[in-house]
Design goal:
Blueprint: H1 26-42, E1 52-56, H2 59-69, E2 74-78, H3 84-91, H4 111-115, E3 122-127, H5 136-144, E4 149-154, H6 162-165, H7 167-179
Length: 182
């Protein structure tokens, strides 16, 4: 979709995924995101004000980490979670037995906390029938996030079928968001 609309796209693998060596961890995927951003600036000659970070699912946390540490033109989050700990407690019922103090302080991959601070323009897109990460997570982020922000719920889409089910609505939301960027 992005390429068809004339937008350059840079995709990379986290350590331990795809063709990348190493083993994944929360810290490493965040380091990988920052390294990818820095590479675009230093090696490819892009300017930070020309880069929009995009994250889908787990990648939404990485995109927010990049946006919290680097200047970016915009943030697009597809199927975002409010925080990794909140999502885990929602999905793994026995984790609810433990008070929040039992979990390590997890600022990384806590999208709600990051976006409650000033940030680049934000577009949240989430399928209304997402069973992996319920749409309530993006709704919570939207309530907490400071402006500028936009939330588009795709009523018939789940987690992995957004491009198939509500493509026109998705594409329209992205195009409108991009036109509104400075």
């Amino acid at each position: 979709m992005f390429l068809r609309d004339g937008i350059s796209v840079f995709i990379y693998d986290y350590q331990g995924y795809g063709r990348s060596a190493g083993s994944p961890s929360v810290e490493k995927i965040c380091e990988d995101g920052n390294a990818a951003f820095d590479w675009l600036i230093s090696e490819k000659g892009y300017h930070d004000h020309d880069i929009i970070v995009f994250g889908e699912s787990l990648g939404t946390g990485v995109a927010c980490q990049i946006a919290a540490r680097r200047h970016v033109a915009g943030i697009i989050l597809q199927s975002a979670y409010s925080s990794l700990v909140d999502l885990a407690r929602q999905k793994i019922l026995w984790l609810r037995l433990y008070p929040a103090s039992f979990f390590p302080k997890q600022e990384q991959l806590n999208n709600a906390v990051i976006l409650s601070q000033p940030h680049a323009p934000l577009l949240l897109v989430h399928g209304g029938r997402d069973r992996l990460i319920p749409v309530t997570h993006s709704a919570q982020i939207f309530r907490i996030a400071v402006p500028p922000k936009t939330f588009t719920q795709l009523p018939d889409a789940g987690h992995n079928d957004i491009y198939d089910v509500n493509f026109e609505q998705y594409n329209s939301a992205v195009q409108q968001f991009l036109r509104g960027l400075p």
